Structure formats: C-alpha cells, structure tokens
Amino acid sequence: MPCPDSEFLTVSAVNEWCISKSTEPVLMPVESKKEKYRRRLTERVNELVHTENVYVERLRHVVEDYMPNMRRSDISPYFRALEADIFGNIEKIFRFHSEEFLPALRDCENDLRKLGQCFRHYEKRFNMYVMYSRNNKRATRLVFEHKQFFQGIQLELGDRLDLSSYLLEPVQRLPRYKLFLADLVKTYSNYENERSETESRISKLSVDSDETGGSNGESSDNDETPLESLKLAKTTVECVLTAVDEIMALENITDCPLYLNLLHQGRLLRQNEFYVMDTARRRRQLMRVFLFDKLVLITVVYRKQPRVEYFIYKDDIPVDDLGITAKEHDQHKFTIWYKKRNLKSYKLETSDPAIRNAWVEGITSLLWEQAMQKKELLLQQRNKRISMVSMNSEESAESERNDDKYNSLRGVPGEVKRLIADKKVRRTTWYCE
C-alpha cells in the first residue's frame, strides 16, 4: 500500500497505512544451532566469572567486617574464643579465591580447555572445603545459640543477610561449580555434534574437501579437547564433593571409644549399609559399615527423622588384624573376621552384587598392599642388620689394625730383643721385619 498523499492525510488513512506496513514480512537473521550453542557457552562462562566475583566479595565481607568484630577488646573473652569455631578456615578460602582462582578464571576468557585445566590445577586447594564443611555444622549451631549477639553485629553493619547465610556460601559453592561444569559439558557436546553435522553437509557439497573437512584448529593430536578438559574438571569437583559427604558422615558417628580417632584412620574408601550378623550372637541387624585405609568400622543405623540419621559405634577391626572370606558362588555375602581372634567374625549381606564385589576387591587390595608393605619393611630391616654387622666388622678390623699399629713393635727389632731379654713380654707372635 503506497503512502497516502500528504495533501489528503486523515487519521484513518495513516492508521491503515501503518497497519499494512506492520504486516509486511521483515527478514531477520536466523541464528543457527551452532551459533546458539556457542552463545550459550559464552554466557555460561561469563556467568561463572560473575558469580565468582560475587562469591569473593561475600567472603571478603565476612573476613573484613564480621571477623574483626569478634576480636574487639570490648566484647566478652568468651565470644573472642569462638572465632575459630565459627569461621573455621574461611579466611584461607577467601585468600585462595581472591588471589588465585578468580584471576585464573578471568585469564581463561572463553578458552574452555584452559578453564577445565584451571579447576584441575587447583584440585588440592579445593580440599580445604572438606575441613570447612566439617566445621560448618558446629558453626551454625553456635551462631544460632548466640543469635542475639550476632544480630547486633548485623545491625551495626547494616547487613541484609545474617551471618549464617554468609557461612553457608562456601558449602554451596562446590555444588554450583559442578552444575556449571555439567552444563558446559552438555552444551559443548551439542555444539560439537552440530558442528560435525554442518561440516559433513558442507563437505558433500564442496569441490575441495580439504577446505571444509579438516581440523577446526581448536586442538591438536597431542592436546586434550575442550570437552575432555571440562569432563575431567567436573570429575575433580565431584571427587571433592564426595570427600565432603564422607567427612560429614563421620560427624554423625557417635559413641566411639576414646582411643579411636576417625580422622587418623586414613582415607574413607567406601561406606554402605549391610545386614550384618554377629556370628557369635547369631543376630542379624541393619548396619552402616565404613572402610578406611587402616580400619573397618561397624555402626548401628539410627534414624531420628526421615532425613536425619546417626550411626552408633558397634565395633572396629584394624586392617592389621583383618581377614576376609568370600565365596564366588555367593554374590551377596562375605565375612570379615579378626586374624588374632578367629571366633569373632561378622557376615555382611547386601542385595546389590556390585556393592559386595566392590567391598571384597577393596578389602583384598588393602590386605595385599599391607602384605607388600610388611615385606618391604622386613627387607629394609634385614638390610639394615646386614649393614650394621658389616659396619661392626669393619670397625673391629680397623680397631685391630690400629692396635697393631700403635702397640706392636714392628720395625723395632732392637726393642723386641731387649724386651725378650728382660722376659717382660708374654706375646708369642711378632710381625717384625
């Protein structure tokens, strides 16, 4: 519809012309799936860096505002003494993220391979979250018990969030990393699939296949791909989260003997629920069993609420005294027992053969490693004894040579004759020249 002549403009004519123009098709650039996935990847990386900035600033607020208030001279010494119990190692976490991890993330920009390597590079540093999570339960309880005191600090700071919310931030950060990395892995997989399909279609139409079917320049044969790097980073975070879950499970174990410190039993390798029968009492009961590097711990499961469970100490078997019996035809049971007290043993039963086999392999591996370590220790002790005997022999021989050197009359025949003449020498053999 042509534009109405300016001499005959009316409101209805203008409206009709505008409506006709609005219905005309407008050609907009269509975003391909490949471009969509690439944009999604960029957005997620930017979001990761942005949330890391926010996280660091919240940690800074705790370290620079809340913690100094716990050190003031005008507050009770009791509250000053609670600083370590409430804040744990949050200051170390803040220093790590502000000085190392956040700058490293910024340097990655949109290099996904470098981003994945960044997480793996700091794997050991992420382990500080394990100890923080272990302390967080106690910290939350202390803040709740003294909420009036901490609410006073909150009002002084004009803070919208309370201290408990800030202390929860590190506990939530690792799961968020896992979600970010999982989304990046999924999106990049879709991006790679779409790019492969596009290149495949183009290569069929292209006269020169070398121009479209070659490498995209993102990785060489010797380098890992961005997808592999992201998957490994996700596995790294999952391992730390597993360690956090394990240490939190230990916090729910009660009534342990005074001699037993679970933090000194090495790694927690696995934990599962079994129906356990004490062969001496012939009682079968649902129990949670923990396998450490140095110990097997047996506990009774006690559920106070559907999502709250505790484990009451039942017994423990040091790996040094541990034996295992597993029959190949029975894929649901195995027996553990004391080597030194054969009468005391426990039969463990599970409905999942995979769990049973994992435990049998895990315990067998521990016992094999222990046997190899003992063998190596015996060899070292034997070599040490041989070395000591050899050293003693050499010292004895050297001592005899020194005695001969200083006490014999070798080379002094005149003196020998004189001593013999005086009959003051009882020595019967002389090595005189």
TrEMBL record:
Cellular compartments per GO CC: cytoplasm; extrinsic component of membrane; plasma membrane
Annotated Pfam families: RhoGEF (PF00621), SOS1_NGEF_PH (PF22697)
Domain DH, chain residue ranges per copy: 40-247
Stretch list, region Disordered: 199-227
Keyword NADP: no
Keyword Cell membrane among record annotations: no
Keywords for this protein: Guanine-nucleotide releasing factor
Gene Ontology terms: biological process: axon guidance
Gene Ontology molecular functions: guanyl-nucleotide exchange factor activity
UniProt cross-references to InterPro entries, sorted A to Z: DBL_dom_sf (IPR035899), DH_dom (IPR000219), PH-like_dom_sf (IPR011993), PH_domain (IPR001849), RhoGEF_Guanine_NuclExch_SF (IPR051336), SOS1_NGEF_PH (IPR055251)
Domain PH: 261-368
Protein name: Uncharacterized protein
Annotated source species: Spodoptera littoralis (Egyptian cotton leafworm)
Taxonomic placement: Eukaryota, Metazoa, Ecdysozoa, Arthropoda, Hexapoda
